[in-house]
Amino acid sequence: MKKHLLATALLASSFTVNATIVEMQTDLGSITVHLYDQQTPVTVENFLNYVADGSYDGTVIHRSVDNFILQGGGFKFDTDFDAIDTADAITNEPELSNVKGTIAMAKLGGNANSATSQWFFNLKDNSANLDLQNGGFTVFGEVTVQSMAVIEQITELVHCGEIPVVNLNEEQCPDTTSGFSGENLFYINSVTVIDDDPNSSASLSPKENTLIDEDDASDNGGSSSGGSLAWMLSLLALAGFARRK
């Protein structure tokens, strides 16, 4: 019997899609993600290409914002943070809503069609902001209830700035990224496809993004009243993170 999915199935404004299933292995447990192949085909294909070539294996969770998002898919770590090789940016597909338990693509502020490899999990219902901001952030899958518990354990780790860490307390946080040891960081050890049948999860019922204006869905300059989010962190920004007090 398949695991129960998050309560998006209970939302009134929902519709059924099918999905490939992938599994992210971490030291705190596995995260099972059901991908929305039918509604966001470009984004899912892009994500699965990174999965297929192993780009996500051994990547770092580099951003965790309490009661907002948990972000990864962009960096590995040797002696410092190294950006993974990325393919061309993809077209935005803001069809679905950024509700709790969904996975969405990160992108550059002020450019709706700039997503490459980075993704984030929505830790709460962020639809009022992220369904509209910067052309809307593309939701392309959802996690199981059990997986959401693993994600929440990651967010409860000690943080240095917005970076979740292990084997450190806040007083031990380095002043720059070069002060980290690889053993201090939290990794996605591997990402694998565990069911490649696009009809494997026909019962999924994600919430539709009803806020996005179709005329603005591919706008390159959209932003919310809260200001632009720096989803695609540069190495320079990472190097200048502030120690959390």
TrEMBL record:
<feature type="signal peptide">
    <location>
        <begin position="1"/>
        <end position="19"/>
    </location>
</feature>
<feature type="compositionally biased region" description="Polar residues">
    <location>
        <begin position="199"/>
        <end position="208"/>
    </location>
</feature>
<keyword id="KW-0413">Isomerase</keyword>
<keyword id="KW-0732">Signal</keyword>
<comment type="similarity">
    <text>Belongs to the cyclophilin-type PPIase family.</text>
</comment>
<comment type="function">
    <text>PPIases accelerate the folding of proteins. It catalyzes the cis-trans isomerization of proline imidic peptide bonds in oligopeptides.</text>
</comment>
<feature type="domain" description="PPIase cyclophilin-type">
    <location>
        <begin position="18"/>
        <end position="157"/>
    </location>
</feature>
<dbReference type="InterPro" id="IPR029000">
    <property type="entry name" value="Cyclophilin-like_dom_sf"/>
</dbReference>
<feature type="region of interest" description="Disordered">
    <location>
        <begin position="198"/>
        <end position="225"/>
    </location>
</feature>
<dbReference type="GO" id="GO:0003755">
    <property type="term" value="F:peptidyl-prolyl cis-trans isomerase activity"/>
</dbReference>
<keyword id="KW-0697">Rotamase</keyword>
<protein>
    <recommendedName>
        <fullName>Peptidyl-prolyl cis-trans isomerase</fullName>
        <ecNumber>5.2.1.8</ecNumber>
    </recommendedName>
</protein>
<dbReference type="InterPro" id="IPR002130">
    <property type="entry name" value="Cyclophilin-type_PPIase_dom"/>
</dbReference>
<dbReference type="Pfam" id="PF00160">
    <property type="entry name" value="Pro_isomerase"/>
</dbReference>
<dbReference type="InterPro" id="IPR044665">
    <property type="entry name" value="E_coli_cyclophilin_A-like"/>
</dbReference>
